[in-house]
Amino acid sequence: MSKILMKPRIALIVMFVLLFTMALYFDDIPTIYRGYIAILQSPSILISDYLEVGGLGATLFNVATILLINVLMISYLKMRMSGPVFAGILTIAGFSFFGKNIFNTIPIYIGIYIYARSQKLDFKSFFIVVLFSTGISPIVSFMIFGIDWAEWFGLAPYWNYWIGVPAGVLVGMFTGFILPAFGAHTIRFHKGYNLYNIGFALGVISMLFSALLRSFEAIDLDQGGPTTELYHSELMLLTIVLSLVFIAIAYVNDLQVHKKYWTLMKSSGRLVSDYIRDYGRSVSMLNVGVLGLMCVIVLWALNFEINGPIMGGILTVMGFGAFGKHPRNCLPVMLGAYLAVALTDFTFDGIGMMTALLFVTAVAPIAGRYGVFIGVLAGFIHVVITPLALVFQEGGFNLYNNGFAAGFVAALMIPFLEAITKSNGEEEN
Prior knowledge:
Layout: H1 2-5, H2 8-26, H3 29-40, H4 50-54, H5 56-76, H6 83-95, H7 102-118, H8 127-133, H9 138-146, H10 149-153, H11 159-190, H12 197-214, H13 232-253, H14 257-265, H15 275-279, H16 281-302, H17 308-319, H18 327-343, H19 351-359, H20 364-370, H21 372-392, H22 401-421
Helix pairs in contact: 2-5, 2-13, 3-5, 5-6, 6-8, 6-17, 7-9, 7-11, 9-11, 11-12, 12-22, 13-16, 14-16, 16-17, 17-19, 18-19, 18-20, 18-21, 19-21, 20-21, 21-22
């Protein structure tokens, strides 16, 4: 039994069953269907809280569907469940609460597949890019549902779909096609200290799309919707249950797993830190569960209520518990983010700063490498830069806006820090 439970893939299957069961428990099938159709037809740009768009049952169904598709892809391609793969799966699940659905992700996958074939390379070698590529999936939905093509060209309303669907699919495929080569170069910009490297690459691409679309007055780029905290209790319970499931899996496999945990906590987390490969499945799953409970405690202490974007942040933090994050390198940058809001004119009244408190952990490796004080400073700078990063990407096509901001934080700080410490940029994790 323990040999089965130890596998992270089993945890993902448990997660799918839990999400699907909760969806059917909270809403009936007709309600889920109507809500899911509303989610698929949403422009999905930042910030489109699917809990507000389609309700709790439909949102959980959307998350479960996306999770299942990607787990089946892993099985079909016979992929090893590595740290990056696990992080990618939970990140996809998290952002399926606000921006990702099956309709706007598939075209990007196809574009990456076409790129792999054009280069005569194995599609499996790009699977990590595939998992993180859908951060820009709203561009597909926006091209289909966010632009009134018929009014623009003076045509009958039904032309919206005849023009929008091909436009959205082609833009998605084009983005997927250029992303692998682009993402490989952006890591040099931040030297691996931004865990959301693909988010930075997508930010640059999103900036291009925003500039092009903004040049047409007929296109409204401000279509982000409100968020809802109506399902805070249910999502808090879901977070706690998932965290305990991961912790239970760790202990079922190894009753002494906590004694090995500190070894992982001493790592910096700098890319590429595959915790499953380096420290084993049990220690990694323990870390994932602990990070989930850490998020719960932080949200409770600050009296934050969970909505779609915040739930996305929680699952992303948990996912990267197998790929670079742990409490020792996360808490300093989170403290820095909190201080940035407390000491400036920023407030936690808006969803942007609330989610930044979670997504600031993209720069956790800076704290892991250079210590608590530098980590606090990195978190502070991240919060200051994040709103500016969103301005560059007006339109909200890049769901990983904090990954875009984190790239600049690392690029600003690391050369200076390396010069001071006379570091050669290499370290042992």
